[in-house]
Write a structure and sequence with these properties.
Helix content: 55-70%
Number of helices: 23
Oligomer: single chain
């Protein structure tokens, strides 16, 4: 039976997505909220998938879409011993074993439906309508199996700190976040699997299920190595739990066994061959590729505009430089998290999880900005934990999403995804009322001004890119301006989220029920 409307129903909001759920609550129709959200999220993803993708119709290597299809081809047709060594010049497998197993599973399904989709060597560059539908369907299916349930459970578990409307708004907003949708279902990848395991990690941390937390985190970085961006925060959190407990040594041993067992199982097929393990390591951590990939909005690519680092230093020196810079950027956040957890009491559990979420944002953003061999798509990594703070940091997360989406525009432009880009950008701005963000707590005027200025800068660059041809001597000028601008913004976000982490213990957030 439909539930009665809450006595603490929220006051009418001017934010469209909040108005929708307030309407459902006023009509005692809460039971349909989640199904409608999930179905709408599914529809948006399928519509995005009707457009182009990375490398469409561009032989001989095509793009990321072909890489994912090719990995299904080699994992299904070749023995495990050749997965990481077969024809490396044509999209050799360069992700950890869990990605390989996912490719094998999808390939097995493809073999059952139409073996020609993944015929060894003969299927290279295949772009038939049915095979594309299958590939799109696998990305949606994996996201709805791993990522979507994690998001729903995480926000539903916040029932003591958030009103029903606030929980539904958060779920809806995270599932409609444009960056992940455009990369996974437009450009084409499976980032939602890695990020889904990260959300499960935070969920298990909040439930104090630390063994499951460790297993889930291992699955994240064993699917994509970028999951290691979260490693310092997860390590600090779990180590602090061991120190604060009476039988912490037992927990430490259990965690060690869980990590070794999880990683060991995934490396099982190669565990007896040192050469094959080394080959996996070389493929997963390709130092030879250089300091960064293409034009990515991190510090090294931005600095390269004025200082050609790759000409001044060799690869090993750049590895050491980036490692030291990354460590300096994330260590303060991890130390703060460690001591916060170390002295936490039972009543501080929710605050500790909040600090943990901030630390995840700060460590992963530090890796994105300063680490070696970063892709533009890696901005999804710090964006995922930031979205778990969307209730506490409305204007900051809204703004972060907009800048992250703008940073992806050069990549999406090459893929021919301009229309989906603009539709998703406008949809996000409309649903979240950005940059005005008129929420329960008024946005500071200075923030409002800065957000509007930020929007104007992005619109100006888009307008110039569309109507003003770049000079022949500077053909990449608009991409470079995008990189420099977004990098500056990401550095500002890193400073802001660090500030919020270090001060969130001083000012406790008011319950959303009271705010509404």
């Amino acid at each position: 039976m439909p539930r009665k409307a809450s006595r603490t129903a929220s006051r009418p909001s001017v934010v469209p997505v909040q108005r929708w759920f307030q309407f459902l609550e006023s009509q005692s129709a809460q039971d349909i909220a989640l199904p409608v959200t999930v179905l709408f999220a599914l529809l948006v993803r399928w519509c995005i998938g009707l457009h182009g993708y990375s490398g469409q119709g561009t032989p001989p290597l095509y793009g990321d879409y072909e890489a994912q299809r090719h990995w299904m081809e080699i994992t299904t047709n070749l023995p495990v011993s050749q997965w990481y060594s077969y024809d490396l010049q044509y999209w050799g497998l360069d992700y950890p074993p869990l990605t390989a197993f996912q490719s094998w599973l999808c390939g097995a399904v493809a073999t059952y439906i139409d073996p020609s989709w993944i015929a060894l060597d003969k299927s290279r560059g295949l772009e038939s309508h049915t095979s594309k539908q299958f590939m799109r369907a696998t990305a949606i299916a994996l996201e709805f199996i791993i990522y979507v349930p994690a998001i729903v459970l995480f926000f539903r578990s916040q029932h003591t700190k958030m009103s029903w409307v606030a929980r539904q708004v958060s779920i809806f907003s995270v599932l409609l976040q444009p960056c992940l949708i455009l990369i996974d279902h437009g450009h084409f990848q499976y980032n939602s699997v890695m990020l889904g395991f990260l959300v499960w990690t935070v969920y298990f941390a909040a439930q104090e299920s630390y063994i499951l937390m460790a297993v889930s985190f291992c699955c994240s970085f064993m699917f994509k190595q970028m999951g290691l961006y979260y490693a310092p925060a997860v390590f600090a959190f779990l180590l602090a739990q061991c120190f604060r407990r009476k039988h912490g040594t037992v927990l430490f041993v259990k965690l060690g066994v869980a990590v070794v067992a999880t990683v060991g199982v995934m490396l099982g097929p190669w565990i007896t061959s040192v050469d094959q393990l080394q080959q996996i390591l070389v493929r997963v951590f390709p130092v030879a590729r250089g300091l960064y990939e293409d034009k990515v909005a991190n510090v090294w690519c931005a600095v390269n505009v004025a200082v050609k680092l790759r000409s001044l230093f060799d690869a090993q020196s750049l590895v050491r430089l980036s490692t030291c810079a990354t460590a300096l950027a994330f260590i303060p956040s991890c130390i703060h998290l460690f001591f916060t957890i170390r002295r936490q009491t039972r009543t501080m559990q929710s605050t500790a999880i909040r600090v943990f979420k901030y630390c995840l944002v700060n460590t992963s953003l530090a890796f994105f900005l300063f680490s070696f061999q970063v892709h533009e798509k890696s901005i999804l990594v710090p964006l995922a934990p930031a979205l778990l703070l969307i209730d506490e940091e409305e204007w900051a997360v809204n703004w972060f999403v907009q800048v992250a989406l703008f940073s992806l525009y050069p990549l999406l432009y090459v893929d021919g995804l301009q229309i989906p880009y603009w539709v998703m950008a406008v949809l996000w701005a409309f649903l979240r009322s950005c940059p005005a963000c008129p929420a329960h707590t008024p946005t500071p005027k200075c923030v409002m001004v800065l957000q509007w200025m930020s929007m104007l800068v992005m619109l100006a660059l888009h307008t110039a890119h569309a109507f003003v041809p770049p000079p022949s001597s500077l053909p990449d000028i608009y991409v470079v301006l995008n990189v420099v601008y977004c990098c500056a913004m990401f550095v500002a976000f890193l400073a802001y989220f660090n500030y919020r982490q270090f001060t969130c213990l001083q000012v406790q957030p008011t319950l959303k029920q009271k705010k509404d």
